[in-house]
Amino acid sequence: MKYPIPATFYALPNGKVYKIFLDAGEEVFFEKAMTIIKSGFNFECEVLTTNEVSLTIIDSKRERDVAIEISRNNKNNQDMATKNAFQKLILNFNLEKPNA
């Protein structure tokens, strides 16, 4: 993994917490993700009961989600689908208007 971003993963069935790293894929996404973290936000992910993957940015101070992206959890293309959703989450997040 070339561009690891720390995240919290909540596992089924009981939400057990794991610290993991998500791959930002490219330096431009890595740099923005690190800026997001340094600004007081964190990344979280979980596999939903629908078998989709939820990727979120949370406001650490207020403990609430401020951005979300859902990805299909396709066994044949799981890594690419999740990476694309993660990059979209990072790219679309506006630090100046985190709730927009």
For the termini, the CA-CA separation is: 31 Å
Strand order of the largest sheet: 2-1-3-4-5
Percentage of residues in helical conformation:
25-40%
Number of domains: 1
Strand segment count? 5
Query: Would you identify the regions where 5 or more consecutive residues have pLDDT less than 50?
Result: none
Structural account:
Strands 2-1-3-4-5 form a 5-stranded mixed β-sheet, with helices on one face. 27% of the residues lie in helices and 38% in strands. The mean pLDDT is 89. It has one domain. It starts with a strand and ends in an 8-residue tail after the last helix. By secondary structure, it is of the alpha+beta class. Strand 1 and strand 2 form a beta hairpin. The protein has helices spanning 27-38, 78-92; strands at residues 4-11, 16-23, 41-47, 53-59, 64-71. It contains 2 helices and 5 strands; from the N terminus they run ββαβββα.
In brief:
This protein has helices at 27-38, 78-92; strands at residues 4-11, 16-23, 41-47, 53-59, 64-71. By secondary structure, the chain is α+β, with helices and mostly antiparallel strands.
Strands, helices and their partners?
Layout (H helix, E strand, L loop, with lengths): L3 E8 L4 E8 L3 H12 L2 E7 L5 E7 L4 E8 L6 H15 L8
